[in-house]
Amino acid sequence: MKKKLLMTVVAALAASLMIGMPFSYCAAPIKIAGIFALTGRAAHIGTSQRDAVLLAIDDVNAQGGINGRKLEMVMSDTESNPTKAVIALKKVLESEDVVAIIGPTLTGTAMAMRGFIEKEQIPTFMHSGGDVILTAPLKKGDPSSTPKWTFKSPYKAADAMGKICEYMSKHGIKKIGFLYSNEGFGKDGVRNVMVQAPKYGIEVVAQEAFQPKDVDMTAQLTRINAKGVDGIIAWTVGPAMGIIPKNVKQLGIKAPLFECHGAGDPIFWKVAGEAGEGVMMPSTKIVVGDQLADNDIQKQIVLDYVKAYKAKFKREPGTMVAYGADAALIVIEAIKKVGPDRAKIRAAIENTKGYVGISGIYNISPEDHNGLAMKDIVMIKATKGGWKLLK
Amino acid sequence: MDISQQIAQYIITGLTIGAIYALVAIGFNIIHNATGIVNFAQCEFISLGGMFMYTLVVPLKVKLFIAFFISMFAVALIGALIERGPIRHARSKEIIILIFLTIGISEVLRGTAQEVWGTDNVGVPGFSGESPIHLPGGAAIVPQHIWIFAITVLIVLMLHYFFKRTLMGKAMRATAVNRQAAMLVGIPVNRMVLLSFAFSGGLGAVAGMIIAPISTTSYDTGIMLGLKGFAAAILGGYGNFAGAILGGTILGLMESLGAGLISSQYKDAIAFFVLLLVLFLKPEGILGYGESEKV
């Protein structure tokens, strides 16, 4: 009896090996790397983008994967730190055979990773806000040496800045102060505001910096306010986006406050509290899906996505979830089209035309590795713990 | 807004932040005096104070006053446990090894805090509202600034009384001056060291709690404040009580006036330039006496 049982077990094992081996061999998962700021000062962005990517991947896998192969994400953490980001990138590329990369979160980390990505020739869809990752030449003094393998899903910061300036000029704001965090994203903002503001007849009369981890910006705001501005733009993500509205209220500054295209996130209310009321910012449509016009081509896509996100993670998505989702969806779309080949994926991403995503409609081209336009951006206002779409 | 009003604002801001740096610096000093080490877990005391209070006040809806004391004692207890556990049982009592040990402890605490609370920054309501107060002279503050000053001054006075007037405080000072001699006259040195860790924990927590309504708080908010507090302690003279207050105030004012009057981009550079300059001219810090005399 015992012997018989043993034989059965052995036979079953052998059978499972025979069936299992070739099966698992041809169904080896397609791996993509997800490199996010999971800890450090941008952790709230990195983790929600990770979730957005996971949701997209789970979705594909639930439908049977890509040609029978599951999609798998190899995750690593930049710790919001450029040096650590490069280490994370090298580690992933050395230990795993990935066909594409999604991330990183911060502009500073993206800049640090860029050169290595080009050398390794691996298509990378970034979530970083700064435009420099696409526009800055890789070789000094050669303006045509822009990255070939790097894409980014958030709007161009130039367009987001333009959107704010357009709104300001419509509402009679002429003299503004610019407050920025003294790192990659903030400095990118300075370059953009100096280009965009004059286009709309706006004068930037003050530029003030702060460190991303600073706990008080009243000194900078006092300086800006002393110049008699009628509008203030604060260009930062992280805790400062809540501290600045508090400081503005404290100093009794009447000029309206605008923040960057990363502020439309539930975290904004967590850090700003009541002081957040009335702050305006450019955003993706994800936070105001139900307020969109019925004939908006994105409306249904946005509402469906928000529903799925809430069902899976039990919380409201912020504006930056859209960037994570679109990066993942476009990469997945490319893999579906051309299979797991780095060069082909890159070409497919570069040929994405009229893709209706959550952040907007992507028309990617060799000249434009982002593909969104100013019309994809909406202006929103922080109202009663939520967001109001500004017309 | 004229320049005198602006300067008034810079000074108020500088003093507020300076008060926090001073509290953190005192925390560093107390442990340094008792043990001779630099306790890098001080940064975590600040974060933990803020996060404990957030948890009690926001999700658990405990009264702010009660939450304040619970958090303070909870972090003081953590401080005591650090001493009672790893520090006391370290195989080597070499200063450098104990310092590395505190770095390790700090990483463990931060990692645990990250697991418990996640990485988001969260806001804590002000102790008495957030409606701004306009001071004569043109500066505007929120009630929290008054709380920060009042609590800092109160703590400094209480510590002063404790160290100068009470038997236990004198025993702690004796331990700081000469550990072996203190032991010989019957002072329970180990208990004094334990107490110093508890004090530091409580002080760090208070710093983290009173700044939280202004700065928001997170699992790692203490790193920056801790480092600045450490710089303040060095500036004033490491181990020196009055030096910590002076160092904190100077650093806070330098940052704020530097940002307001010179350049916000080089704010920290200005503050640290002053720090380096002082240390170059007087390596023991402004009020430091060198090695022989502490406290």
Specify the CATH architecture of the largest domain in chain A: 3-Layer(aba) Sandwich
β-sheet strand percentage of chain B: under 5%
Provide the succession of SSEs of chain A: HEHEHEHEHEHEHEHEHEHEHHHEEEE
Question: Widest sheet of chain A: strand order?
Answer: 2-1-3-4-5
Main sheet attributes: strand count, strand direction, barrel closure of chain B: 2 strands, antiparallel
Secondary structure layout:
The complex is a heterodimer of chains A (391) and B (295).
Chain A: H1 2-26, E1 30-36, H2 43-62, E2 71-77, H3 82-95, E3 98-102, H4 107-120, E4 124-126, H5 132-135, E5 150-152, H6 157-170, E6 175-181, H7 184-199, E7 203-210, H8 218-226, E8 231-235, H9 240-251, E9 257-259, H10 266-272, E10 280-283, H11 299-313, H12 319-338, H13 342-350, E11 355-356, E12 361-362, E13 378-383, E14 386-389
Parallel strand pairs in A: 1-2, 1-3, 3-4, 4-5, 6-7, 6-8, 8-9
Antiparallel strand pairs in A: 10-13, 11-12, 13-14
Chain B: H1 3-35, H2 42-57, H3 64-89, H4 95-117, E1 133-134, E2 140-141, H5 143-165, H6 167-177, H7 179-184, H8 189-215, H9 222-236, H10 241-262, H11 267-281
Antiparallel strand pairs in B: 1-2
Mind explaining what this structure looks like?
The complex is a heterodimer of chains A (391) and B (295). Chain A has 391 residues and is an alpha/beta fold. Chain A folds into 2 domains: 30-154 and 300-371, 3-Layer(aba) Sandwich (Rossmann fold), CATH 3.40.50.2300; 157-283, Rossmann fold, CATH 3.40.50.2300. Chain A is built from 13 helices and 14 strands. In chain A, strand 3 (98-102), helix 4 (107-120) and strand 4 form a beta-alpha-beta unit. In chain A, helix 3 runs parallel beside helix 4 (107-120) and helix 12 crosses helix 13. Chain A is globular and about 90 Å long. Residues 20-25 of chain A have low confidence and may be disordered. Chain B has 295 residues and is mostly helical. Chain B contains 11 helices and 2 strands, in the order ααααββααααααα. Chain B has helices at residues 3-35, 42-57, 64-89, 95-117, 143-165, 167-177, 179-184, 189-215, 222-236, 241-262, 267-281; strands spanning 133-134, 140-141. Chain B has a two-stranded antiparallel ribbon. The model of chain B has no long low-confidence stretch (mean pLDDT 90). Classes of the chains: A alpha/beta (391), B mainly alpha (295). Chain A binds chain B through residues 38-40, 43-44, 47, 182, 208-211, 213-216, 218-220, 222-223, 225-226, 238-239, 242-243, 246, 249-252, 267, 270-275, and chain B through 1, 3, 6, 9-10, 13-14, 16-17, 20, 114, 118-123, 125, 130, 132, 134, 140-142, 211, 214-216, 218, 220-221, 223-225, 255-257, 259-260, 264-265, 267-268.
